[in-house]
Specification:
The protein is α/β, with parallel strands linked by helices and about 350 residues long. It contains 15 helices and 9 strands.
Length: about 350
């Protein structure tokens, strides 16, 4: 009887072990983009982090503007540990008191980063680069005997009238086409008159101004033959559809932005948040993020395969020459520009 009791006790303890292990598993809440980004990171970053730290990642999907809105709404009772956003909205989060200042000494991989990775005030750090350029289908161009595009100004070629797609100014690609054409015409972020004039010239050629993700559908319908899009979306579209869509680095330069990660103020999981940031900046994860997500690495140690390297912002030449908007000016003027865009460009 005594032996049976001991065995029963051991069996009970053994049965409790999985429950105890589950009870000890912590959660880290990440706010970032949905698919294809989340799906891509679930191939590499997320399972690796969960395995290393006995953590379950809770992923809160949303565009950068949506993540910013959530942080603002939750300011007094934050529910998110780590925020990952485009650098424009991220800058508003940092100046709005929503993020903690980073302690660089807690991020070992910080020593390997390009200067462009660092954010003003250290409220975040970039983990990936992307940029807006042109796209086209080589098969369609060859069939029509059109010369491949090389310049932002190729959007104005008469053979493309009614077959061009650009984004609404609410999207980073929309901001970038305005700024790209503005710079070509001799303006800067503080004076976008020339940019608006050039976009107005382009209006008759435009099928639509993408606001809600229409680009993939219109490409598959062959309703457009050329447009502006960020390099990672071109790569993702090609990989998921079998298209031959090709990204073009315009000779006047790519206008890009940084994908930035930061720690939300007022949350208790800062130790895990720092581990997340350090992992996404590691050589391996920088390479995998380039391969699976299509974001250019900010780590100098990343060594990409040629077929991956050609589809991202990669290497000193492209990283150091990336045109990044002056977000202090853009964020200040964006509401004004949006109102003007709606009245003068899309006439809504």
């Amino acid at each position: 009887m005594k032996l049976r009791s001991i065995l029963q006790g051991l069996a009970l303890i053994a049965g409790l072990i999985p429950s105890l292990a589950m009870a000890q598993t912590r959660e880290l809440v990440i706010a970032a983009w949905g698919d294809p980004y989340e799906a891509a990171w679930r191939k590499s970053l997320i399972p690796e982090f969960e395995k290393q730290n006995n953590v379950k990642i809770i992923w809160v999907q949303g565009f950068s503007s949506q993540t910013l809105a959530k942080l603002r709404a939750q300011k007094d009772n934050p529910q998110i540990d780590v925020a990952m956003m485009d650098d424009g909205p991220f800058r508003l989060a940092s100046t709005g008191g929503l993020l903690d200042k980073l302690d660089r000494s807690k991020i070992a991989n910080i020593k390997d980063l390009y200067d462009v990775a660092f954010e003003q005030g250290d409220f975040g750090i970039a983990f990936g680069l992307t940029g807006s350029g042109l796209y086209y289908s080589p098969k369609v161009f060859e069939k029509n005997k059109w010369a491949p595009p090389t310049s932002w100004l190729d959007l104005f070629r008469p053979e493309f009238k009614g077959k061009v797609l650009i984004h609404n100014i609410s999207n980073a690609n929309g901001i970038n086409i305005l700024l790209a054409l503005n710079k070509i015409a001799g303006g800067d972020e503080r004076d976008v008159e020339r940019g608006f004039a050039k976009v107005k010239e382009l209006v008759p050629a435009v099928v639509t101004f993408d606001r809600f993700g229409e680009t993939p559908t219109l490409l598959q319908q062959e309703a457009v033959v050329i447009g502006t899009w960020n390099i990672d979306r071109v790569s993702n579209f090609r990989d998921t559809t079998g298209s031959d869509l090709q990204f073009v680095f315009p000779k006047e330069g790519v206008w890009g932005w940084k994908e930035v990660v930061g720690i939300v103020k007022g949350r208790p999981n800062q130790d895990l948040a720092y581990k997340w940031i350090n992992l996404i900046l590691s050589k391996q994860q920088q390479e995998l993020t380039a391969e699976y997500v299509g974001l250019g690495p900010v780590s100098k140690t990343a060594n990409l395969k040629p077929n991956i390297a050609k589809n991202v912002i990669y290497g000193t030449e492209y990283v150091t020459k990336l045109n990044i908007p002056n977000w202090e000016v853009v964020n200040e003027k964006r509401a004004e520009w949006t109102e003007r865009w709606n009245k003068e460009i899309e006439r809504r």
